[in-house]
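Collaborator request, handled under Task 6.
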Amino acid sequence: MNSNVKLPVDIRIGVIGGGQLGKMLIEASRPWNIQYSVLENDLNCPAAALANHVILGGLKDAESIQKLAAECDVLTYEIEHINSRVLMELEESGKTVIPSARTLQIIQDKGLQKHFYQKHAIPTADFVICDNPAGLAEAVKSFGGDKVVVKQRMGGYDGKGVDIVTKSDIQTGLFQSPGPCVVEYFHENITEYSVIVAADQFGNVVTYPLIEMYFNPQSNLVEFLFSPAETTPDLEAECRNVAMHAVRELKSPGLFAVELFVTQSAEVLVNEIAPRPHNSGHHTIEGSYTSQFEQLNRILLGLPLGNTEMIQPSAMINLVGGEGQTGAYKLKYAEKLLSEPGVYVHLYNKSEIRPQRKMGHITVMAETLQELLDKAGKIRDWAVFE
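Structure tokens returned to the collaborator:
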């Protein structure tokens, strides 16, 4: 721990990306009077109303990123699809980037991610790298079963760029990969978990309690999650240890969401790592002593890590645009939601709704896990727009 920590901290933080994650990161900094600048290509982005300065520019534009860096002491990012080469150059010139540019380069490329897991003995699903889409039919022959998972190496997000397809569709040409990809063995009937891991600038690493996640089968977006997970203490400990090992091997400070698969044989596999606050950690805003967003602020400022224990069992329900919904929007059951104790509504300051667009989330809290699950079942019926 740094014994010279003082508040307020005379540091300006720069965020590449001004979406809802940037908005909530700035919200969490407000008790400490931290100054924030944001780079975004839309002056009406969710974080714009809270940032001290918004720089209008592209997230991959070198000149715009350098402009942000010139007025900030520390840089972070709320989205992976940015210019990591420029961040590497800024680091080499002495600028602090958290997580590191090297970490971002690994995360940006799912092929490099897979090789990273393999190199550092981090358990993950068996895979083949297929950089020539024409060779996809040959690549799938190395896997058993009828299905495989095909992930585009670059550019995927929120379930986009990930396809679960039959081997016959690939071999007959019905499915064709649009570019270089990773082909993974498809595990049937897995349970999906997440562990939020925080690594400070002094080598300390902590985890939050295990999070159990459920996804929309069409959009691949998280629909619902809760913590603590409904599992055994031994399995939770193994998941947290695997996640901590993966983050330690990255050798970078930052906040990370380690997404995990647990197979039917109780094998724990790392799916992907997100080097930023994550949808799976939103429940920590009310449910934990230190939210994931406050934790990242602590890391960026060189402050001690906060307590990751839960205050109460908590769940998160995503608020997304419904089929055919566009333009203006309102919560259909706002009065019911706001009248329910232990229920917290977060809206992301987005001007227009679109189908499957993340518009906000709802946190639900209760004294026991069973009470939480019962309560969240009712709240999920009210989590719709009109």
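The cover message to the collaborator said: "The two ends are 49 Å apart (CA to CA). The CA atoms of residues 110 and 339 lie 44 Å apart. Please let us know whether this matches your experimental observations."
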